[in-house]
Amino acid sequence: MIPTTIEKWHLLVKTKNTDLLDEILADDVNMHSPVVHTVQKGKEITKMYLSAASKTLCNNTFKYVREVYDEDFALLEFETEINGISVNGVDMISLNSDGKISDFKVMVRPLKGINVVHQVMGEALSAIQRR
User: Start and end of every SnoaL-like domain (predicted)?
Assistant: First the structure.
């Protein structure tokens, strides 16, 4: 059974409605980026990262190809193409006792994929911060 929060995450990915992040993220959520070596702590910075990802990674080639669920954990493997480079990754999502996302970890491969994700996410985050 897919947790309600993950169903909302899928809806966000499909519609790019990042307002849903307010509903599904815990206030003390931790975000683990594949290119930033420190954990990003808190709802606002996590919203910024996931909003940027929804605009860059979740393009018309993005799809989840495998999903594994546990009581309070989801592992979602994805594939996408960015600037002609195939990217394969995994979203590892932990839920707290309220069913909200408490930990969001993204892992990406191969190296060319990491490099292009780093580039486009950097551009998207800069654009968000300039607003």
Answer: 7-103
